[in-house]
């Protein structure tokens, strides 16, 4: 029903509206900037002469330049099997893991895995007097400043179950 009604309004007086739109005067385009014109060379014949004229001073300087290339004395090694030395990161074994092969086994010092982060946040929430920032930093090889920021800005969710009597009241 709604489709028929909208179609009536859409097709109402279509021909007159189309004629009115077509008969409107077209707007004149904005004038182009002189630098955007392609026929600049026709306006300034001196530009064409400058392009094709030889500069003797530059040509003399160019003739003085001499490039000599030599092949290196020894053959270049392809470095088969050689690797660039890189900094060895100190890693520590993770504290938790119940997923077997899916668990992260080693974590660089100064970082924690997601499972460890959630665990330490939850431990601090449940027992803040035992799990202080200093103890967490020592346990997980972190800096105290970073642990303080972590405990301040990240709070784990709590799940609350309502008794059946209160569910009906809600």
TrEMBL record:
A GO CC term attached to the entry: mitochondrion
Organism: Centropus bengalensis
Gene this protein is translated from: Ndufaf4
Quaternary state and interactors: Binds calmodulin. Interacts with NDUFAF3.
Matching InterPro entries: NDUFAF4
Descriptive protein name: NADH dehydrogenase [ubiquinone] 1 alpha subcomplex assembly factor 4
Assigned protein family: Belongs to the NDUFAF4 family.
Protein origin, superkingdom: Eukaryota
A UniProt-annotated Pfam family: UPF0240
BP-aspect Gene Ontology terms: mitochondrial respiratory chain complex I assembly
Amino acid composition bias (Basic and acidic residues), ranges on this chain: 17-27
UniProt region (Disordered), positions on chain: 17-48
């Amino acid at each position: 029903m709604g489709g028929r009604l909208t179609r009536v309004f859409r097709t109402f007086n279509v021909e007159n509206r189309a004629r009115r739109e077509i008969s409107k005067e077209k707007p004149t385009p904005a004038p182009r900037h002189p630098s955007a014109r392609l026929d600049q060379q026709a306006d300034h014949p001196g530009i064409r002469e400058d392009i094709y004229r030889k500069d003797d001073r530059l040509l003399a300087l160019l003739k003085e330049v001499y490039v000599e290339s030599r092949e290196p004395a020894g053959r270049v090694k392809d470095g088969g099997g050689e690797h660039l030395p890189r900094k060895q990161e100190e890693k520590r074994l993770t504290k938790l893991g119940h997923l077997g092969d899916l668990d992260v086994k080693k974590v660089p010092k100064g970082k924690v895995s997601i499972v460890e982060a959630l665990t330490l946040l939850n431990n601090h929430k449940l027992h803040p007097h035992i799990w202080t920032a200093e103890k967490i930093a020592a346990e997980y090889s972190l800096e105290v400043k970073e642990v303080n920021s972590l405990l301040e800005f990240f709070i784990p969710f709590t799940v609350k179950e309502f008794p059946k009597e209160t569910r009906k009241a809600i």
